[in-house]
Amino acid sequence: DGGITQSPKYLFRKEGQNVTLSCEQNLNHDAMYWYRQDPGQGLRLIYYSQIVNDFQKGDIAEGYSVSREKKESFPLTVTSAQKNPTAFYLCASTSSRGVFGYTFGSGTRLTVV
Amino acid sequence: QKEVEQDPGPLSVPEGAIVSLNCTYSNSAFQYFMWYRQYSRKGPELLMYTYSSGNKEDGRFTAQVDKSSKYISLFIRDSQPSDSATYLCAMSLSEYSGAGSYQLTFGKGTKLSVIP
Description:
heterodimer; A: 113 residues; mainly beta; 11 strands; globular; B: 116 residues; 6-stranded mixed β-sheet; 5-stranded antiparallel β-sheet
Protein backbone atom coordinates (compact mmCIF):
# COMPACT_ATOMS: atom_id res chain seq x y z
CA ASP A 1 0.00 0.00 0.00
CA GLY A 2 1.19 3.49 -0.80
CA GLY A 3 1.60 6.04 1.90
CA ILE A 4 3.88 8.22 3.98
CA THR A 5 6.05 6.73 6.68
CA GLN A 6 7.37 8.90 9.48
CA SER A 7 9.91 7.63 11.95
CA PRO A 8 10.42 7.41 14.78
CA LYS A 9 6.96 7.72 16.30
CA TYR A 10 8.39 9.14 19.54
CA LEU A 11 11.71 10.93 19.90
CA PHE A 12 13.43 12.41 22.92
CA ARG A 13 16.09 15.08 22.59
CA LYS A 14 18.45 16.53 25.11
CA GLU A 15 19.02 20.25 25.27
CA GLY A 16 21.58 21.36 22.66
CA GLN A 17 21.23 18.30 20.42
CA ASN A 18 20.24 18.18 16.78
CA VAL A 19 17.77 15.47 15.80
CA THR A 20 16.53 14.32 12.40
CA LEU A 21 12.99 13.19 11.69
CA SER A 22 12.48 10.85 8.78
CA CYS A 23 9.74 11.12 6.15
CA GLU A 24 9.48 8.66 3.26
CA GLN A 25 6.68 8.38 0.70
CA ASN A 26 6.02 5.80 -2.01
CA LEU A 27 3.16 7.69 -3.64
CA ASN A 28 5.30 9.24 -6.38
CA HIS A 29 4.24 12.69 -5.17
CA ASP A 30 6.32 15.65 -6.20
CA ALA A 31 5.49 18.04 -3.37
CA MET A 32 6.31 17.35 0.28
CA TYR A 33 5.70 19.40 3.41
CA TRP A 34 6.61 19.56 7.08
CA TYR A 35 4.11 20.89 9.59
CA ARG A 36 4.36 21.45 13.31
CA GLN A 37 1.30 20.94 15.51
CA ASP A 38 1.04 22.31 19.04
CA PRO A 39 -2.00 22.05 21.32
CA GLY A 40 -4.43 24.82 20.43
CA GLN A 41 -2.23 26.04 17.56
CA GLY A 42 -3.32 24.05 14.55
CA LEU A 43 -0.81 23.12 11.84
CA ARG A 44 1.98 25.52 10.98
CA LEU A 45 4.15 25.09 7.90
CA ILE A 46 7.89 24.67 8.53
CA TYR A 47 9.33 23.84 5.08
CA TYR A 48 8.07 22.57 1.76
CA SER A 49 9.61 21.16 -1.40
CA GLN A 50 8.16 21.02 -4.88
CA ILE A 51 10.99 19.13 -6.58
CA VAL A 52 14.21 17.33 -5.74
CA ASN A 53 17.06 19.56 -4.58
CA ASP A 54 14.74 22.51 -4.04
CA PHE A 55 12.84 23.63 -0.94
CA GLN A 56 11.35 26.79 0.54
CA LYS A 57 10.84 28.12 4.04
CA GLY A 58 7.38 28.12 5.51
CA ASP A 59 6.02 30.30 8.27
CA ILE A 60 8.18 28.96 11.12
CA ALA A 61 11.45 27.76 9.53
CA GLU A 62 13.82 29.21 12.14
CA GLY A 63 15.73 26.47 13.95
CA TYR A 64 14.89 23.81 11.34
CA SER A 65 16.62 22.50 8.23
CA VAL A 66 15.62 20.08 5.47
CA SER A 67 17.03 18.32 2.43
CA ARG A 68 15.42 16.78 -0.63
CA GLU A 69 18.01 14.58 -2.31
CA LYS A 70 15.47 12.00 -3.43
CA LYS A 71 11.86 12.37 -4.52
CA GLU A 72 10.75 9.86 -1.89
CA SER A 73 12.50 11.39 1.09
CA PHE A 74 12.22 14.72 2.91
CA PRO A 75 14.01 14.57 6.30
CA LEU A 76 13.64 17.38 8.82
CA THR A 77 16.44 18.32 11.23
CA VAL A 78 15.49 20.12 14.41
CA THR A 79 18.58 22.04 15.42
CA SER A 80 19.69 23.31 18.81
CA ALA A 81 18.69 26.78 17.61
CA GLN A 82 15.02 25.81 17.87
CA LYS A 83 14.09 27.17 21.30
CA ASN A 84 10.88 25.25 21.84
CA PRO A 85 11.07 22.03 19.82
CA THR A 86 8.64 19.91 21.83
CA ALA A 87 5.71 19.33 19.44
CA PHE A 88 4.00 16.87 17.12
CA TYR A 89 5.59 16.95 13.65
CA LEU A 90 3.64 15.95 10.55
CA CYS A 91 4.97 15.25 7.10
CA ALA A 92 2.66 15.49 4.08
CA SER A 93 2.81 15.12 0.33
CA THR A 94 0.49 16.11 -2.48
CA SER A 95 -0.39 14.63 -5.82
CA SER A 96 -1.43 16.33 -9.03
CA ARG A 97 -4.84 16.79 -7.35
CA GLY A 98 -3.23 19.66 -5.57
CA VAL A 99 -4.74 20.86 -2.35
CA PHE A 100 -7.33 18.07 -2.37
CA GLY A 101 -4.60 15.45 -2.64
CA TYR A 102 -2.79 15.94 0.65
CA THR A 103 -1.65 12.75 2.38
CA PHE A 104 -0.28 13.00 5.89
CA GLY A 105 2.03 10.68 7.76
CA SER A 106 1.23 9.49 11.28
CA GLY A 107 3.54 12.02 12.87
CA THR A 108 6.54 12.11 15.19
CA ARG A 109 6.18 13.30 18.75
CA LEU A 110 9.39 15.12 19.77
CA THR A 111 10.04 15.84 23.42
CA VAL A 112 12.98 17.75 24.88
CA VAL A 113 14.25 16.22 28.10
CA GLN B 1 -7.13 39.01 13.34
CA LYS B 2 -6.01 35.50 12.46
CA GLU B 3 -6.67 34.25 8.94
CA VAL B 4 -8.75 31.29 10.07
CA GLU B 5 -10.63 31.11 13.37
CA GLN B 6 -11.92 27.85 14.77
CA ASP B 7 -13.29 27.23 18.24
CA PRO B 8 -10.99 24.60 19.80
CA GLY B 9 -13.72 23.21 22.05
CA PRO B 10 -13.69 20.64 23.49
CA LEU B 11 -17.16 19.75 22.32
CA SER B 12 -18.94 16.85 23.97
CA VAL B 13 -22.24 15.46 22.62
CA PRO B 14 -24.35 12.35 23.22
CA GLU B 15 -24.42 9.62 20.61
CA GLY B 16 -26.98 10.34 17.90
CA ALA B 17 -26.75 14.13 18.22
CA ILE B 18 -26.26 16.50 15.31
CA VAL B 19 -22.87 18.16 15.52
CA SER B 20 -22.06 21.55 14.01
CA LEU B 21 -18.43 22.57 13.57
CA ASN B 22 -17.52 25.99 12.21
CA CYS B 23 -14.70 28.17 10.95
CA THR B 24 -14.55 31.79 9.97
CA TYR B 25 -11.89 33.35 7.80
CA SER B 26 -10.70 36.81 6.88
CA ASN B 27 -9.18 36.36 3.40
CA SER B 28 -11.97 36.63 0.83
CA ALA B 29 -9.65 35.15 -1.82
CA PHE B 30 -9.89 31.64 -0.33
CA GLN B 31 -11.73 29.43 -2.81
CA TYR B 32 -11.10 25.83 -1.75
CA PHE B 33 -12.31 24.56 1.60
CA MET B 34 -11.56 21.30 3.32
CA TRP B 35 -12.35 19.46 6.52
CA TYR B 36 -9.85 17.04 8.00
CA ARG B 37 -10.43 14.50 10.77
CA GLN B 38 -7.53 13.70 13.08
CA TYR B 39 -7.61 10.87 15.58
CA SER B 40 -5.37 11.09 18.61
CA ARG B 41 -1.66 10.71 17.78
CA LYS B 42 -2.41 10.24 14.09
CA GLY B 43 -2.08 12.39 11.00
CA PRO B 44 -5.10 14.27 9.61
CA GLU B 45 -7.16 12.62 6.90
CA LEU B 46 -9.27 14.48 4.36
CA LEU B 47 -12.95 14.16 5.17
CA MET B 48 -14.65 16.55 2.75
CA TYR B 49 -13.79 19.32 0.36
CA THR B 50 -15.77 22.00 -1.44
CA TYR B 51 -15.15 24.72 -3.94
CA SER B 52 -16.62 28.19 -3.50
CA SER B 53 -20.06 28.55 -1.89
CA GLY B 54 -22.68 25.89 -1.46
CA ASN B 55 -23.33 22.56 0.21
CA LYS B 56 -21.84 19.13 -0.25
CA GLU B 57 -23.17 15.98 1.36
CA ASP B 58 -21.45 12.64 1.92
CA GLY B 59 -23.32 10.16 4.05
CA ARG B 60 -23.74 11.59 7.53
CA PHE B 61 -21.50 14.56 6.76
CA THR B 62 -22.49 17.87 5.15
CA ALA B 63 -20.08 20.69 4.37
CA GLN B 64 -21.37 24.22 3.84
CA VAL B 65 -19.55 27.27 2.57
CA ASP B 66 -20.93 30.82 2.77
CA LYS B 67 -18.36 33.02 1.08
CA SER B 68 -20.40 36.18 1.62
CA SER B 69 -20.11 35.65 5.37
CA LYS B 70 -16.66 34.03 5.18
CA TYR B 71 -18.02 31.11 7.17
CA ILE B 72 -17.77 27.37 6.67
CA SER B 73 -19.48 24.56 8.54
CA LEU B 74 -19.35 20.81 8.90
CA PHE B 75 -22.46 19.01 10.10
CA ILE B 76 -22.39 15.45 11.40
CA ARG B 77 -25.74 13.71 11.65
CA ASP B 78 -26.41 10.72 13.92
CA SER B 79 -23.00 11.17 15.55
CA GLN B 80 -21.18 8.01 16.62
CA PRO B 81 -18.47 7.40 19.23
CA SER B 82 -16.13 6.66 16.29
CA ASP B 83 -16.57 10.30 15.24
CA SER B 84 -14.63 11.35 18.36
CA ALA B 85 -11.61 13.16 16.96
CA THR B 86 -10.22 16.60 16.28
CA TYR B 87 -11.71 18.28 13.21
CA LEU B 88 -9.57 20.78 11.34
CA CYS B 89 -10.82 23.16 8.70
CA ALA B 90 -8.40 24.15 5.95
CA MET B 91 -8.57 26.46 3.00
CA SER B 92 -6.54 27.45 -0.02
CA LEU B 93 -6.34 30.21 -2.58
CA SER B 94 -5.87 27.78 -5.44
CA GLU B 95 -6.45 24.11 -6.25
CA TYR B 96 -2.92 23.28 -7.33
CA SER B 97 -0.14 22.87 -4.80
CA GLY B 98 2.89 24.89 -5.53
CA ALA B 99 5.16 27.60 -4.29
CA GLY B 100 3.98 30.73 -2.59
CA SER B 101 0.30 31.05 -1.88
CA TYR B 102 -0.90 27.56 -2.74
CA GLN B 103 -0.44 25.95 0.62
CA LEU B 104 -3.23 25.14 3.01
CA THR B 105 -4.15 27.46 5.86
CA PHE B 106 -5.49 25.48 8.80
CA GLY B 107 -7.79 26.31 11.67
CA LYS B 108 -6.68 25.28 15.15
CA GLY B 109 -9.03 22.29 15.21
CA THR B 110 -12.09 21.43 17.33
CA LYS B 111 -11.87 18.41 19.61
CA LEU B 112 -15.11 16.42 19.51
CA SER B 113 -16.17 13.68 21.91
CA VAL B 114 -19.28 11.63 21.21
CA ILE B 115 -20.47 9.96 24.39
CA PRO B 116 -22.20 6.55 24.07
